[in-house]
């Protein structure tokens, strides 16, 4: 495949047209998180560390469901490529049915995860802030998952501009609302981290309502037979579970490994926890928009799989690498050259920032080194996921993440080697995943006609 891969400007333009709105959309999500943590940093380092811990724990709690439901992207794209337009919105209906059925399980997860912060030996003040922030975000998690289903659907049918519009409007509401509620403006009391959580829920609801507005527009209703899709379709539901379940398990176990690593890393102390919060804030601004490219790759490859025509896949892969490596390469340069001022952005108005500054600038060097490896992971993963190779992705990715976690346990807990060694190990794990994903992509097994027929089978 590597020898046959070539760049087509037409395909590059098409991928850019599909992926760019998703990059913007994912960027709004990153900016929303970045803004919340920046506001927390202006209170004190404990609040900033708590926003990171509570936010990561929230994503950990619903990430399995998010990974499962986001496969609506690939399924809708595959049905569109196969010319079965009426089945596309049925994917959304099955996703919403599963969302409602998951409410009791999400309640149980919230109850048990709420006690996790104290077990990890965090500062008592940080524990309480983390718990409050986490419980507020989980109170609206059904809205988040419903939004995942419908936004993934729009991405799958190529209407990524709709996703961009809805998510951008949510951001435009969230940022000023968070400022007002966190710091107490316009007659509101200063709610701190509670205000950050409430403003996020309001913005999520607003964005979901916008998605539903586009979903029920006359042109869309007629083209995709939306009224006829509001039924339980067991065949599509079974296919959704068969292909999406490995994606959900992969995301859940990977986030669990990352979350446990982060909690162990924060056990070094408040300065180390704040340093991690700073670096991962900048990581989000590079990684999350790159997932927009990943979503675009899934959509385009999914349509080719649905039409049983893979002649253009090499062009899509080449275009993905060009866009991903160019973007991540630029960010890598910015991260290494401007690492000191980027860290200083999060310096609180008062207090000693020297320990945080020293460690965070060291960690920024690691971030710049693995930025392009992240791009390789996103491009390869998008191709393989769009082609339905979700089981292999689950096995490979989960194995590498948990090997890293075991290594971190010995580094942090057993041998007490310090935060710099732990961070270097984390960076090496990113490079390993990139290499393994590239090996699978260029191995061609996922392209075999008999495997693609199994993917499309209901």
What does this structure look like?
It is built from 19 helices and no strands. It is mainly alpha-helical. Helix 2 (about 45-70) crosses helix 8, helix 3 runs antiparallel to helix 4 and helix 16 packs parallel to helix 18 (about 420-440). The longest helix has about 35 residues, at about 270-305. The chain is globular, with a radius of gyration of 21 Å.
Relevant terms:
19 helices, 458 residues, mainly alpha, globular
Low-confidence stretches: none
What proportion strand? Answer: under 5%
Largest sheet: none
Number of helices: 19
Put the structure in a nutshell:
The protein is an all-alpha fold and 458 residues long.
Secondary structure blueprint with pairings:
Elements: H1 9-41, H2 45-69, H3 72-81, H4 88-101, H5 103-113, H6 116-119, H7 124-139, H8 141-156, H9 160-183, H10 193-215, H11 218-224, H12 234-266, H13 270-306, H14 313-337, H15 339-344, H16 354-386, H17 390-414, H18 419-441, H19 449-456
Helix pairs in contact: 1-2, 1-9, 1-13, 1-14, 2-7, 2-8, 2-12, 2-13, 3-4, 3-8, 3-13, 4-8, 7-10, 8-10, 9-10, 12-13, 12-17, 13-14, 13-16, 14-16, 16-18, 17-18
């Amino acid at each position: 495949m590597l020898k046959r891969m070539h760049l087509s400007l037409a395909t590059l333009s098409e991928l850019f047209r599909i992926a760019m709105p998703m990059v913007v959309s994912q960027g709004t999500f990153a900016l929303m998180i970045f803004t919340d943590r920046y506001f927390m940093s202006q209170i004190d380092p404990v609040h900033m560390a708590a926003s990171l811990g509570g936010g990561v724990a929230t994503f950990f709690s619903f990430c399995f469901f998010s990974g499962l439901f986001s496969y609506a992207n690939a399924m809708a794209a595959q049905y569109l490529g196969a010319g079965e337009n009426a089945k596309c919105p049925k994917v959304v209906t099955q996703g919403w049915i599963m969302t409602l059925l998951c409410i009791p399980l999400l309640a149980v997860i919230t109850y048990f995860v709420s006690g996790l912060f104290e077990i990890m030996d965090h500062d008592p003040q940080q524990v309480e802030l983390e718990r409050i922030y986490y419980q507020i975000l989980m109170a609206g998690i059904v809205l988040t998952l419903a939004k995942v289903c419908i936004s993934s659907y729009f991405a799958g049918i190529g209407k990524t501009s709709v996703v961009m519009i809805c998510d951008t409007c949510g951001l435009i509401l969230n940022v000023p609302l968070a400022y007002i509620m966190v710091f107490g403006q316009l007659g509101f009391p200063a709610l701190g981290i509670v205000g950050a959580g409430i403003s996020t829920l309001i913005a999520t609801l607003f964005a979901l309502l916008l998605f539903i507005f586009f979903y029920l527009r006359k042109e869309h209703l007629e083209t995709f037979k939306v009224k006829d899709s509001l039924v339980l379709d067991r065949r599509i539901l079974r296919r959704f579970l068969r292909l999406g379940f490995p994606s959900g398990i992969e995301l859940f176990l990977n986030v669990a490994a990352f979350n446990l690593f982060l909690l162990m890393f924060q056990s070094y102390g408040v300065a180390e926890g704040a340093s991690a919060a700073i670096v991962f804030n900048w990581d989000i601004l590079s990684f999350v928009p790159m997932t927009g490219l990943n979503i675009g790759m899934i959509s385009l490859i999914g349509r080719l799989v649905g039409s049983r025509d893979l002649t253009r896949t090499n062009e899509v892969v080449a275009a993905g690498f060009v866009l991903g490596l160019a973007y991540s390469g630029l960010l890598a340069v910015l991260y290494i050259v401007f690492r000191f001022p980027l860290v200083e952005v999060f310096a609180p108005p008062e207090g000693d920032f020297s320990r945080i500054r020293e460690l965070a600038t060291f960690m920024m060097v690691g971030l710049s080194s693995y930025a392009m490896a992240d791009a390789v992971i996103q491009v390869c993963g998008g191709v393989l996921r769009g082609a339905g190779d979700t089981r292999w992705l689950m096995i490979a990715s989960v194995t590498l993440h948990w090997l890293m976690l075991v290594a971190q346990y010995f580094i942090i807990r057993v041998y007490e080697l310090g935060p710099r060694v732990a961070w270097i190990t984390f960076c090496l794990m990113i490079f390993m995943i990139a290499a393994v994903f590239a090996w699978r992509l260029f191995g061609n097994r996922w392209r075999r006609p008999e495997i693609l027929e199994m993917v499309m089978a209901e």
